[in-house]
Prior knowledge:
Elements: E1 41-44, H1 49-53, H2 57-63, H3 65-75, E2 78-81, H4 89-98, H5 113-119
Parallel strand pairs: 1-2
Amino acid sequence: PTITKEKKDLSGKLPDCPRTIWKADNIDTDNIPQPRETAPLIVDAKDLAERLKSGTEEAYFVAEREKIMEQLQQHGAILFKNFETMKDAEGFRAFYDALQLNPCLDPIHTSGLRDMIGKK
C-alpha cells in the first residue's frame, strides 16, 4: 500500500518551465552522425511485472531514480506506459515526487492549445 501524506497544494503556484533554447544555427545537416539512441525510451510496466510485484510503483521509481535520470539525459524523453500510479493526478504527483522532479507549468498552458484539445 502507498503511504499517503499531505502534499502541499501547488495550484496557482507553479513557475513556468524553462524555455527551450534551439541552438540550430550553423548545423551541417549533411554531416550529422547516425543516432545511437532514439527518443523516447519506452518503459512499460508490463515488462517490469515481476519487479513491481515486490513493492509499489512508487518504491520502484524511488529505487530507480538515478538510472531513470541517466536514461532521460541519454534519450531526451521517456514514455512510461501502463503504470497504475500515473492514471490520476494524485498518482502522477507521487511519481513526480519519487523522481524528485521540480514541478513547473507546461509551456503551452497559456497558448489556448489545451482548450482546443479539451473540446475534441
